[in-house]
Amino acid sequence: MAKKDKSRQKKFDTRIDFTPMVDMNMLLITFFMLCTTMLKSQTLDLVLPTNDDVNKEEETKIKQSDAVTFIIDGNVTKDNLGNEEVKSGTIYFYEGQPDMENFTLDEIKFGDSKDAIRGKLQEKNKELLVQINKFKQEWKNGTINDSVYNEKVKKARADQAADINAKRPIVMIKPTSNASYADVVRLLDEMQINQVSTYQIETLNKQDSILYEKKVGHPLAAAK
Amino acid sequence: MGKVKIKKHSTIIDMTAMSDVTVLLLTFFMLTSTFLQKEPVQVVTPPSVSETKVPDEKLVQILVAPDGKVYLNLTGARDSSVLASDKFRAEVVNRAYGKYCEAHPKAPKLTAVQQQEFSKLTTFGVPFSKLPEWIEMPMEKRDEFLKNEGGIPIAMSIKDGQPNEFQIWLKAIKEVMQSHDLGKDLTGGQGVAIKASQYSPYSLVQVVMDNLQTERLNKFTLMTSLKAEEE
Fold first, then answer.
1. pLDDT, tens digit, 9 for 90 and up, residues A56-76
2. Residue A64 gets which letter from DSSP?
3. Which residues numbered 10-69 in A keep a CB inside 8 Å of some CB on B?
4. What does residue A79 show for φ and ψ, rounded to 5 degrees?
């Protein structure tokens, strides 16, 4: 009997119970899963004009017909903590100079139909987009690789920006003090998608405020 | 007898394979993880098609809370011989607080111990007048203070032309980075990132941009989260 017992014990000894090990590992995994960020944040580049005084000669002149102005508005509500919160608002736009006779200011929506923002910008930026689409097709066919493609797009954009006679949109983004940050970023996004090389963020000038007031029926909210 | 024996054996499950799997998973998570940084407020950044990644070094991150409070987060160079994060923060606080003391001679000086303590804090943002007090606080009180009474004063001062506290911080950061030959990294466009909630009114972000413009930091980035491009 004694001998039998011994042999049986030996058999059990070779097995190590891994259950606690697994338990511990699971705990650690849970910890790491909860504490990590898998996705790194992305960033959107933005360049603002300098505050320094610029000579009249150095100012960039643009063609009136190229200018597109977007005015972003929003409805401010309060969230449950009492902070101001804006979901998404109306966007108005006009082309060229503000129409101070009839005070026309149209609403425009995000989206890629012909009357929406993307359609509008694509129409305005047709020349460049046709070129870029050609490169894209070549890239898809495998005739050019990534770096060549990027290089070509970059060159096409630079050429267009340098060519004073090229047909291209110059976009003015004018958020009111009620505009939501998400809308501004979304509009900046459209600039990227539609390869608009010249755009800037501005504040509303007097004419814009008049147009806005005529359209909406109440004056612009004062800047905070 | 035989029946009982068989039953006994079947209750033991071999956990070795399971353990192998968990260890593998664990290794994966340990290697890929970058820890969530503790921030006074959690914000949901707006979606964008932009695919540029946030740099993980030489970065000045400006966090705009939904209530308009502004915090700063400084990261030095990965190569610690160039400018380690804690050295960066220590030098910045030294300069910024020094500037504040010039204008307010009665303010208490920052001790070396306090500077040392400050250099360990990733996110900061209290008015200068409360800075020494905030550093002296225990860890858990610090976070609460940051959330409730923090925020770097940022309102653009029009009347006296004096820089506000946020601009003092920016000036200090700029000087420190330039003294380490990293000025280009700051002004090149990837060195400054603004992080704000997508539900925030744009005016909150605009104030930050105005301040950056005043300090001639005209190129910067906005932090966004990835959105699939609809084509």
1. 666 666 777 788 888 888 877
2. G
3. 15, 17-19, 21-22, 25-26, 28-29, 32-33, 35-51
4. -85, 180
Domain-wise residue ranges, chain A: 2-33, 64-125+168-216
Question: Do residue A177 and residue B201 have CB atoms under 8 angstroms apart?
Answer: yes
**Partner A, chain B 165-224, Cβ-Cβ below 8 Å:** 189-190, 193, 195-206, 209, 212-214, 216, 218-224
Q: What is the pLDDT of residue B228?
A: 63
Provide the residue type at B77 as one letter: A
Pair B77, B128 in one domain:
yes
Instruction: Tell me, yes or no, whether B114 lies in a domain.
Output: yes
Q: ipTM value, please give it.
A: 0.77
Can you tell me the distance from the alpha carbon of A99 to that of B52, in angstroms, rounded to the nearest whole number? 39
Verify that B116 and B12 share a domain, yes or no.
no
- Give the domain range for residue B128: 47-226
Classify residue B38: in a domain, yes or no. Answer: no
| A47 neighbourhood in chain B, CB within 8 Å | 189, 218-219
The β-bridge partners of B72 are B62, B124
* Strands B59-64 vs B192-196: parallel, antiparallel or unpaired: parallel
**Shortest distance, CA A173 to any CA of chain B (angstroms):** 12
Residue B39 forms part of a structural domain: no
